[in-house]
Specification:
The protein is an alpha+beta fold and 225 residues long. It has one domain: Sandwich (Immunoglobulin-like), CATH 2.60.40.1240. The protein is 25% helix and 32% strand. It has 2 helices and 11 strands, in the order ααβββββββββββ. The strands form 2 sheets. Strands 2, 3, 4, 7, 8 and 11 form a 6-stranded mixed β-sheet that branches. The protein has a 5-stranded mixed β-sheet with strand order 1-10-9-5-6, with no helix packed on it. The longest helix has 28 residues, at 14-41. It is elongated. 24% of the residues are buried.
Length: 225
């Protein structure tokens, strides 16, 4: 089931995107075969035919890749809203649950509690209803008003790659060390796989806009020495 509404890391059906990526990888293999055939077997006619097929496939694939990137739009979800991640035949949803700040050892720290939820209403009819899911690797950044990006310095609670069963959720606390002038935060959660740069409709693909989670105003500073 594809989550095509707002708040998703994809603006193209994930199963189709994955199949397209596998087909593109196969096309790359055919290109290598064509080069081998030309260099060692001198089958020029067959090589030209194969090259034309691979070239047409590449044109279509990258045309779709950049079209979906151009059609995407940047989005910041309101506090409490969930960002969905397509996992082929089911979906995970992420939301900011709470945020607090403190001064610890003279350093400003912001702690964001993130919830990961396995949305049981998005399970494909082909998937077992009680089958667990191990999330793909995630990359999390805190973005401030000046578009500066900060990676978490510590992560506590349940790891973001901990497996879930349908309907289950858990929380992870991410701690960020920030300069004093950082304000108006957004949280960016993306996948962390290299192949996502080449997946049609994935927000990590070239030129694709991102979906952010708004981070609400934090609780007042607590001072720890």
């Amino acid at each position: 089931m594809w989550h095509s509404d707002i708040g998703s890391n994809m603006n193209f059906p994930a199963p189709v995107a994955v199949l397209g990526f596998l087909a593109a990888a196969g096309g790359l293999g055919l290109s290598v075969l064509a080069a081998f055939t030309f260099l060692f077997l001198r089958k020029a006619q067959w090589t030209r035919w194969l090259g034309a097929v691979v070239g047409a496939g590449a044109l279509i694939y990258f045309g779709l890749l950049f079209t979906m990137a151009f059609a995407s739009r940047e989005e910041t979800l309101a506090p409490g809203q969930e960002k969905y991640f397509c996992e082929i035949d089911c979906h995970l949803a992420y939301s900011v649950r709470s945020v607090r700040e403190e001064l610890q050892g003279g350093q400003r720290q912001v702690h964001v509690v993130l919830r990961t939820r396995f949305d049981e209403t998005t399970i494909s009819s082909r998937r077992l209803k009680d089958a667990s899911l191990t999330p793909n690797s995630r990359r999390v950044l805190l973005i401030d008003r000046k578009e500066r990006a900060f990676a978490p310095i510590t992560t506590t609670g349940t790891p973001l790659i901990h497996k879930l069963i349908p309907g289950e959720s858990y929380e992870t606390e991410l701690s960020f060390q920030l300069p004093e002038d950082a304000e108006q935060f957004r949280l960016l959660i993306t996948g962390d796989g290299w192949e996502e740069h080449f997946l049609i409709g994935d927000e990590n693909s070239f030129g694709h806009k991102k979906t952010y989670l708004a981070v609400p105003a934090s609780e007042p500073f607590s001072r720890k020495q």
